Amino acid sequence: MAQIGVRGSASGLQSDGGWKEFLYENRKWLLGAASVVAFFIFWEGFYEFVELNQMFMTKPSLIATGFLALLEDGQLISDIGVSAAPFFVGFLSAAVVGVALGVVMGWRTRVGYALEPLMTALYASPLVAIAPLVIIFFGVGVAGKSILIFVLCVFPFMFNAYAGVTSVDALLVSVVRSLGGKEKDLYLKVIVPSVLPYLVAGARYAVGRALVGVIVGEFFAATAGIGYRIAWFSDMFEMSRMFVCILTMMVIAVVFTEGIRWAERTAFPWRDGE
After folding, report:
1. Taking 70 as the threshold, does the pLDDT of residue 269 lie above it?
2. How far is the C-alpha of 204 from the C-alpha of 207, rounded, in Å?
3. How far apart are alpha carbons 79 and 94 in whole angstroms?
């Protein structure tokens, strides 16, 4: 009987330890989910106690109804597909051009001296303001929106690549050269590994700018897409469906950001702060 009691007690401790370990290992996701749920509960409860005009405000239950309606008729999926094309074209083009330009600026000192003031001035300027001009010159299709997204996203990639190259340890460069390494070896074995963590940080910031570019581009001239739908529902005072589109963009931003973080943890596990 005593042995049974001891075993039962040990099993209970192990079970408690398992739950505590699970909560500790997943505390990030659990706390994040709890804060989101608490926010929507507060939103719903506030709407119940305070009378608001549904033409100007809505609540989560009505947003959920609007989401199901948009999902059933396929409009939401169609708009996401329309917005996805310029997003990926502009984002990937910005990554290629921005990284290449940033590496050259960082590795070639004179090029960096010549271009850094101009690029800094352009980066600090309100680039969203040029959206009407971009649409006028390049049209309302994929090309115009892709170029706008490219303009917004290229600078985070360029400046992060530039910072990564300038942070390369000079001792590593000297070692590679002393061992007979060529320019290609310096790029592949020293510069690229040093720049990659900076590019991940730049990509996380560029995702938000790319989504802003999609919305702004579709605000001015479009017949479909998430940005166009947000503007249309706003004009029609369909607040519930407008918030469906806004929350959809927020979810997409979170998914991309967490995907980039996962890639960073996979490629550079020593940088994980957990």
Report:
1. no
2. 6
3. 23
